[in-house]
Amino acid sequence: MLLEDGLLGLQNVIAWSNELQRHRSALSFLKSKDGISWQYLNKAPLLQPSHGWMSSYIHSGECRQNSIDKKWYLYFSAGNKGIWSKSKERIGLIIGQ
Q1: What's phi and psi for 94, nearest 5 deg?
Q2: Would you give the end-to-end CA distance of the chain in angstroms?
């Protein structure tokens, strides 16, 4: 996404969990002034597995700004089991200012 002072990127971070003995995934925001060098916007992921239908993994984020209300809409998919073929996957939405 192009912002006034640079770029904002959305990354699907996949990492191994020693505690769970499986991979976990989350969504993180990155920022860049030139599009070449990127840094994480926050230390912790923006959205990570927590409970219920999004207890195992989160991925496939898409973020858009609504031209009418100027709010940001982040759509993502998430699942509740480590094995995607056995997971119930759903679409989530976060609306930001």
Answers
A1: -120, 130
A2: 15
Q: What is the mean pLDDT of residues 12-30?
A: 80
Confirm if 71 and 93 have CB atoms less than 8 A apart: no
pLDDT reported for residue 83 = 65
DSSP state of 30: E
Is the separation of the CB atoms in 55 and 80 below 8 Å? Answer: yes
DSSP state of 26: E
- Residue 13: C-alpha distances to residues 10, 22, 58, 80 (Å): 9, 14, 9, 17
The size of the chain, in residues, is 97
User: Which strand (E) or helix (H) includes residue 39?
Assistant: strand 39-40
* Phi, then psi, of 86 in degrees rounded to 5: -110, 0
The DSSP H or E segment spanning 48 is none
pLDDT given for residue 45 in this prediction: 85
